[in-house]
Amino acid sequence: MTNWIDEDLNGVRYGLEGTVVIDEQSPFQRITVIESKRYGKGLLLDGCWMTAEKQERHYHECLVHPALCSASEITKVLVIGGGDGGTARECLRHKGIKHLDMVEIDRRVVELSKMHLPDIGGHAWNDPRLHLHITNGIHWAKNASTNTYNVVIVDGSDPAGPAEGLFNKTFFENCKRILRPGGIFATQSESPEAFKSIHIDTVRLIREVFGYADPLYGWVPMYPSGWWSWTFASVEEASYLNLKENRAKDIAKHCEIWSPRWQKGAFDAIPAFIERELKK
């Protein structure tokens, strides 16, 4: 029987028509896999939309490539979260990566994604450069050695449940500490409409910790409001704005959303009300 599967948020419903394939409780969260008519198979965690087969590039390309195309080096990369595999897949398009640590707290998210959404992780799951660790990403960042990674990417869900600790000063300070000189930090930073205060507070806090940070705006139509953001940070200067031309050219050939031109517009697309808030 076909039904509507919805995420309810502040009096608004964001739904897809389809059927529930899997609905189970892991030790950390409720995991739901659906088959939708419009966007293919999709994933919800604790009733919130995470990804879908025909939507995921809107999210993963925008989180990954601004960071990996601007860092001075990309030999060693850390991804915290991202159990569906999409962020790892986009990272591993970059030939310069020699070692990718992916730290996901919930093994069951990985297992169900491999089983029901195999195209999202794609080649990443069998790439020898990928090192999957089923453990707490907050603890990983705390315990990692200083100057370990060229790029740190946080692909967490909304700031609740197992992802709640990914949105605080101590965690961001550890991410800064484990970055090598010339490194880039990247995180999803919520919707400037559906999660306005969380978005603004997150950008402010990252800017306070790193010194340089800016949000980039795009769209993920299945997410609350459809309007989404990712925030990039660095220490010495706003180096995430300066792409490595050859690296970016090679990657753009494989992308559906991201390109150097798109990225410039997405950073410039900061709405007036957000810009005013961030200047306070």
Walk me through what this model shows.
The chain has ten helices and twelve strands. With 280 residues, it is α/β, with parallel strands linked by helices. The protein folds into two domains: 50 residues, Spermidine Synthase, Chain: A, domain 2; 224 residues, Rossmann fold. The chain has a seven-stranded mixed beta sheet, with helices on both faces. A hairpin with a 7-residue loop joins strand 11 and strand 12. The longest helix has 15 residues. The chain is globular. The relative contact order is 0.14.
Give the spatial strand order of the biggest sheet.
8-7-6-9-10-12-11
Mean pLDDT: 94
CATH level 1 class label of the largest domain: Alpha Beta
Structural domain tally? 2
Structural class: alpha/beta
Total strands: the figure is: 12
* Net shape: globular
Multimeric organization: single chain
Which range does the strand content fall in?
Answer: 25-35%
Largest sheet: 7 strands, mixed
CATH architecture field of the largest domain: 3-Layer(aba) Sandwich
Name the CATH homologous superfamily of the largest domain. Vaccinia Virus protein VP39
Present the secondary structure layout.
Elements: E1 3-9, E2 12-25, E3 30-36, E4 40-45, E5 48-52, H1 56-68, E6 76-81, H2 86-91, E7 99-104, H3 107-116, H4 118-121, E8 130-134, H5 137-143, E9 149-155, H6 169-177, E10 179-188, H7 196-210, E11 212-219, E12 227-234, H8 245-252, H9 260-268, H10 272-279
Parallel strand pairs: 6-7, 6-9, 7-8, 9-10
Antiparallel strand pairs: 1-2, 2-3, 3-4, 4-5, 10-12, 11-12
Helix pairs in contact: 6-7
